[in-house]
Amino acid sequence: MKKKTLFSTTIAVALAATYLDSYAQTTDTTATSAPTQAQTQASPNSGLTVSGYVEAYYSHDFTALKTAQERPGFLYNHKRNREVNINLAFLKAAYTSDRIRGNLALQVGNYAQYNYAAEQTLVQNIFEANAGVKLSKNRDLWLDAGVFSSHIGFESAISKDCWTLTRSLLAENSPYYLSGAKVTYNTPNGKWTVLGSVLNGWQRVKKLDGYSGPSISTQVQYRPSSNLTLNWSSFVGADRPDSLKQGRFFNNFYAVINPAGRFGVILGFDIGADRKPVVRTGSDTRVDGGGSYVWYSPVVIARYKTSDKSYVNGRVEYYNDPNGVIISTGTLNGFKTVGYSLGYDYAMLPNALFRVEGKVYDSKDPIFEGKTNASRMNSSLTTSLAVSF
Questions:
Q1: Fewer beta carbons within 10 Å, N or C terminal of the chain?
Q2: Which DSSP helix (H) or strand (E) runs through 37?
Q3: What is the phi-psi region of residue 23: left when phi exceeds 0, alpha when psi lies from -120 to 50, beta otherwise?
């Protein structure tokens, strides 16, 4: 099949099915947030909808060599340096009815290029592919299976849905997507969401060679009011072969405070532990390493609504991975980095969002490529234009 012909045809269908709202939300029908009363009445929303999203960007790394074409290795979005590129573009078809739902979204861009680098070529262009069935006639209880957006964390790959243009360190280095099966329950009052899933691994469609699995992940979310969301998500499994016996236990906590108000705050904290690997002595005797390698990352994001069409936002974050479990540096102290960012967002149209963000990283060790020698500091400026339909 010719991809160009398919892409053009799908765009034509999508434009015919366009629906717009403020910031033009592209809804994930398997999203874990509780539905509104209108959403629970499935009949008016039943049927097939087609939507799309395109985010173009330009990122300028002031610290790196002029010839450097990529941003640091621990970043997977807005990755290309000093060139206009596409971070993420996708077309999505979503079907919903009283008891059945499904999503299929095909993607291109740097997000797919770098986040799916370890996957088989056949699935690297799949943003979502899942099917779901409602298990109870009277309860909001769903079983979904396939490839879906991760419920771990408050940031997604869709930049327009996030408070900042670029992703936080904890988001870049935890799963953006998951594959497997999940059961999700929303309480009738809309205050609680409980999710349990059986997965192929830590952000993997294809299970890691040598890992028998499966992995397990959970989510508990509580919304006492429209001004507060509290979330705990976990992952239990491994991202190493069975022979190393390196089990992983990971927790993601966050609170979203006053999201629709003039001033809002997100508080996030990730902490994970990988068991130290089994090693072999000279006599080929297996020795348990004992203990665990621990990494953690706190982040604070605040934004202020300056007008009906604009926001300013700021972020302070820290990532501590001294043993290089997630981010390997080969330096004495590992990855211990503070990040700061300041951004401005302007909704040019209801479905067109322009953003600009300056960001600085400050590391304990000189881990960044500099113009002469390795540097402890990295600074950049990123702009983007996101259009959804």
A1: N
A2: helix 37-40
A3: left
- Indicate the DSSP class of residue 325: S
The CB density around residue 36, as the number of other CB atoms within 10 Å, is: 9
Q: HSE (CB half, 13 Å, CA atoms) of 159?
A: 34
| Residue 190: closest CA among 360, 362, 40 | 40
Distance of CA 366 to the CA centre of its chain: 27
Written as six digits, the tokens of 235 are: 């992952």
Kindly state the tokens that stand for 257.
Answer: 């405070």
DSSP lists the bridge partners of residue 181 as 145, 198
286's enclosing H/E stretch is: strand 286-287
Give the span between the Cα atoms of 165 and 382, in whole angstroms: 8
Record the pTM: 0.87
DSSP 261-280: SSEEEEEEEEEEEEEPPPEE
Whether residue 15 contacts residue 379, with contact meaning beta carbons closer than 8 Å, is answered with no
Question: Do 237 and 213 contact (CB within 8 A), yes or no?
Answer: yes
What are the backbone angles phi and psi of residue 323, rounded to the nearest 5°? -100, 5
Q: Residues for the chain: how many in total?
A: 389
Of 50, 140, 48, the closest CA to residue 388 belongs to 50
- 3-state secondary structure (DSSP) of residue 5: helix
Sequence-distant (≥ 6) Cβ neighbours of residue 354 within 8 angstroms? 345, 346, 347, 348, 383, 384, 385
CA proximity to 32, closest of 193, 208, 179, 159: 193
For the cut 50, the answer to whether the pLDDT of residue 17 exceeds it is no
Evaluate whether 90 touches 105 at the Cβ level (below 8 Å): yes
User: 48 and 95 in contact (C-beta within 8 Å)?
Assistant: yes
pLDDT tens digits, one per residue of 209-265? 999 989 999 999 999 999 999 999 999 999 999 999 999 999 999 999 999 999 999
Cβ atoms within 10 Å of 130's Cβ, excluding its own:
23
Other residues' Cβ atoms within 10 Å of the Cβ of residue 270? 25
Q: List 219's β-bridge partners, or say none.
A: 195, 233
Count CB neighbours of 373 within 10 A: 7
Pairing state between β 263-275 and 84-96: unpaired
Start-to-end CA span in the chain (Å): 25
192: left (phi over 0), alpha (psi -120 to 50) or beta: beta
Residue 290 pairs with which residues in a beta bridge? none
